[in-house]
Amino acid sequence: MTTALMEAFWAYERALMADDVAALDRLFAPGPTTLRGDAEGLLVGHDAIAAFRAVRGGAPARRIVDTHVRPIDDDHALVVAVTEPERGGRGQQTQLWVRGGAGWQVVAAHVSGPAPALDRRVWRVVGDPLVAATAPGPLDGRRVAVKDLVAVAGHRIGAGNPAWLAAAGPEAAHAPVVAALLAAGADVAGIARSDELAWSLAGTNVHTGTPPNPRAPHRISGGSSSGPASAVSLGHADIGLATDTGGSIRVPAAYQGLAGHRPTHGVVSTRGVVPLAPCFDTVGWLTRGPELLAAVGDVLLPADTADLATDLVHDAGLTALAAPEVARTVESWAAARGVRPLEVPLGPVAQWRAAFSTLQGWEAVQEHGEWAAAHAADLGPDVRARFERAARTTDAEADRARAVVASARARVREDLGDRVLVLPAAPTTAPRLGADLAPVREATLALTCVAGVAGLPAVTLPLTAADGLPCGVSLVGPAGSDRALLALATRLAAMDRTGT
Amino acid sequence: MTTALMEAFWAYERALMADDVAALDRLFAPGPTTLRGDAEGLLVGHDAIAAFRAVRGGAPARRIVDTHVRPIDDDHALVVAVTEPERGGRGQQTQLWVRGGAGWQVVAAHVSGPAPALDRRVWRVVGDPLVAATAPGPLDGRRVAVKDLVAVAGHRIGAGNPAWLAAAGPEAAHAPVVAALLAAGADVAGIARSDELAWSLAGTNVHTGTPPNPRAPHRISGGSSSGPASAVSLGHADIGLATDTGGSIRVPAAYQGLAGHRPTHGVVSTRGVVPLAPCFDTVGWLTRGPELLAAVGDVLLPADTADLATDLVHDAGLTALAAPEVARTVESWAAARGVRPLEVPLGPVAQWRAAFSTLQGWEAVQEHGEWAAAHAADLGPDVRARFERAARTTDAEADRARAVVASARARVREDLGDRVLVLPAAPTTAPRLGADLAPVREATLALTCVAGVAGLPAVTLPLTAADGLPCGVSLVGPAGSDRALLALATRLAAMDRTGT
């Protein structure tokens, strides 16, 4: 038994080193119950494993330095191997082998490799901490992941783009939001990745890779606040300090099962933050739960200037923009909290969404058009295309979009009054890595532009869809009601836990 | 079957969360073949696993979010579980269970948890990179881990002590060695841990923990250049920029299976480096192999001022200071390379070693005595005790020690001439975590003080002892022969690979 088994074991190792995908697929048992897990998550079924192998481009070169074979019966054995990657460190591989008609095959594999110094998909720089709190306070011991758009004194801003970073000098002072967190007891853990110039909702930065989404393995993180979001969901940080122009907090919160707050436009300082489209830009934050989300609000938000009714409404048309599994999850959450239908549907949302994108693009070009034109070759294709398209927007088109946005803002604020709108934070759960994201982006902006055009605060809470993947519900409140909205969100979230 | 198995599975999980070590030990199969592996390495045998559990102080709180049970036969099953630690991220646990007289028990477990943002035992701050190369050069693409004693512009020096760090301001300029590496194409990956004020050979920093030693799991890293050494052995960096006063490069190189160079005293700038004992302090480096070790030397070393004979000698008395398994490994390596016995034994080594320690302590007190007295409560007990003892050294004792060192220096240089002394880099393989290190330190200094008192360059090469653990051989050459010594070491190391 052992000879044939070890022949198969070494054949597998050779195939792995040669990235002989066909041989690897043959040496893994067929069927839906075969397992393969690593730091990126567990894959279930031969097809999922084969699909992963087909695109990964080979495993790092390594040696087997130790093997322990544990025969179980004539047809089963466990083989545990210690691996030594050429690039350093050690790993472990545990395989359950079974002998069948096709000889010995792996039915379950667990692979661990040495962790890198830092996960460059998530972080650009990280410390223990990078910047220590300047005073004790309510956020004592909390670690902040700062999106790479926000000034941290002594460090550069990279804005998600290597050419931007290379030309940047160290910041002379902290952005006021960073200084406020440090003065409230929080440490800055590090500077986390952003989509380029924050102009994406995906997190698929072409230069540094897509941060992992631990709750939805092998799926995208969401962006553009992808680094802070993944840092928080990975437990690398407690607070992700981020920005949201068109959904850049709400989308990663939904995809990763996090809480997030996009404040009322204008109430949290954007000083020291690279702008995208100032008429929509906000600085907000992500956490693993609503209590800390509110505690950060206590530090960063001014006193409320508007009251909040505990009257919750939803718009069936907006909810229907989401995929059925997300819509159902949000509807069921809303029903359990007595959310009532809005009398008059909001909209025309399609027109708002178009105006939002036109005006966002026009402002982005005002801010960065010259840089983007000079650095077209340094930009990923999606963001480059957005700049190129936006550069063709005329002033007249921008004026028309501005008028639509102004009227939408008035309309939403009037229709909602002091009530809270409940809607899906994003229309889908996290798309798979490699999926076509263009249609998802369109559908997402239709949902997220409501708070965007109206400049309203939006708290996002994590839900779980029927398939186990995270999705999010957003609560959009009156302008200037941020603290009350965060308190309401905390109470609404607690209803799940107390069963009330 | 499944019911009883899953009862055992959940009993194990409850015991883990309660840190009920007795229950955990009962649920793991007795005997020498039981396996448990995690990121710190593979433990073999129930006793080793129980010893690990007895001291770890519990596992992080977690939930099981997914389980896959794969029954093998009536008495065996594999259970793969996805875990979600409360602090974030996801992990995986693979267990092979067997049913025997004691019910279901684990015979093999493979446990993976989410990696932290950075391993704070290894790094204080790390980036992608932290500081980019300033010019292309021979070290293009190489990543440097800078010991936290060496100035990196814009960053503070922590010297292995939190109170030191808290009082430090950012450095205005790079240390010349850092600037030289950056100008030669290397990036600074980050700032890696040091023992406090570099005054230890263990790496067991009480504030930030002992860096892992991947080649010798559950054993100490060696110090004081513990962070750069572990960063290199983990593959987090290619070059560890470090210091060696009494063995701080040679010891971690030996314990972790790395190559290291301690230069001739005075030939590499110590400007911008926190001193310990200037009359012995050197700035050197660690790599995974001798070729890169020599390539760094090409960048940092001046032209040689002394010739080197290819005449290799050893001193049986010095080699006998090492434990038998290390002595045998070094002797066998030396025999294969025609190393001849020295005619006249070197020494009196015990006297040199005492004078080395006296003078090192006296100088350390000149440098840092005032600070250490003011911060006694901020220092770990070992380093504090060294400062306290050294503070009692009289000027007359220091003068006598200086005279012994001067005479030793002349004696060693005369006895060796242009020959190369081959000796164990450290007397043992890496001691286990928690072992009493005082006797190891004494024996180590007896070996390492030879190059120390004589101010001679020492290249350390990695060997493997019979038990599979790393150990090291040092080649001590004439003063000013560093480049030739590195070239010789590269040739001698290659003899293993070519079989010549």
TrEMBL record, chains A, B:
Pfam families: Amidase (PF01425), AtzH-like (PF11533). Residues 206-228 are annotated as: Disordered. Residues 135-312, 374-486 form the Amidase domain. It comes from the Bacteria. This is Amidase domain-containing protein.
